[in-house]
């Protein structure tokens, strides 16, 4: 199923803390596949993390690396959530 970049944030937010997979281009140009989830409150230090809809960044918990990571929605290629695969157009 194809989904626009504008609606991909809604699809991610609708996971309600369940695990999802994303494929995206990292800042250095490498492709990355990540298993992630939202809503993790582990090891929070407080303060601001810099993610917002204005800069297309979303903070997620990387299930493999066991740490917080940022995903740039502008470089997202595909998403698999709730048993559905989405191609980002």
What does this structure look like?
- The protein is built from one helix and seven strands; from the N terminus they run E-H-E-E-E-E-E-E.
- It is mainly β and 89 residues long.
- It starts with a strand and ends with a strand.
> What's the order of the H and E elements?
EHEEEEEE
Q: Helical stretch count? A: 1
The biggest sheet, with number of strands, parallel, antiparallel or mixed sense and barrel status, is:
7 strands, mixed
Number of strands: 7
Name the average pLDDT.
Answer: 90
CATH topology: SH3 type barrels
Question: In percent, how much strand structure appears in the residues?
Answer: 35-45%
Structural class from helices and strands? Answer: mainly beta
Rg computed from alpha carbons, rounded to a whole number of angstroms: 12 Å
| Low-pLDDT residue intervals, each spanning 5 or more residues | none
Task: Note the topology.
Elements: E1 2-3, H1 5-13, E2 20-25, E3 31-37, E4 57-62, E5 67-72, E6 76-81, E7 84-88
Parallel strand pairs: 1-7
Antiparallel strand pairs: 2-3, 2-6, 3-4, 4-5, 6-7
